[in-house]
Amino acid sequence: MTTQQQNTIDRIILRTEKLNGKQKVSVFNIRKGHVILFVGNVKEGQQYNRETIYCNVEINTKGNITKGFFDALRPKEKVQYLYMD
């Protein structure tokens, strides 16, 4: 991972955790030096699972976001009801 990628990841994580508290962070290496960053959390209840996604982006070797979603104020929320399956 390059220093530009690490700086971009640190900046996104800091901004998200500053507004929303501690979150789950995952970084995956993919093709040609690109990385995928996921910031979010999953709350599991007895009747439903709620997944909150603040960031799901692909970062190239220069540290630029090439595609994905990032919004620290309005996350994407997905609710799955267990009894509906």
Description:
This protein starts with a helix and ends with a strand. The model has no long low-confidence stretch (mean pLDDT 90). The chain has 85 residues and is α+β, with helices and mostly antiparallel strands. The longest helix is centred in the first third of the chain and has 18 residues, at 3-20. The chain has one helix and five strands, in the order H-E-E-E-E-E. Strands 1, 2, 3, 4 and 5 form a five-stranded antiparallel sheet that branches. The chain has one helix spanning 3-20, and strands at residues 24-29, 35-44, 48-59, 65-70, 76-81.
List keywords for this structure.
85 residues; alpha+beta; single chain; elongated
Topology overview:
Blueprint (H helix, E strand, L loop, with lengths): L2 H18 L3 E6 L5 E10 L3 E12 L5 E6 L5 E6 L4
Antiparallel strand pairs: 1-2, 2-3, 3-4, 3-5
Evaluate the radius of gyration.
Answer: 14 Å
SSE class: alpha+beta
Distance between the termini: 40 Å
Oligomer classification: single chain
Largest sheet: 5 strands, antiparallel
Residues in helix, %? 10-25%
Mean pLDDT equals: 90
Inertia-based shape: elongated
According to DSSP, the number of beta strands is 5
| Topology order in helix (H) and strand (E) letters | HEEEEE
Q: Tell me the number of helical segments per DSSP (H or I, 4 or more residues long).
A: 1
User: Which parts are unreliable, with pLDDT below 50 for 5 consecutive residues or more?
Assistant: none
Beta percentage is over 45%
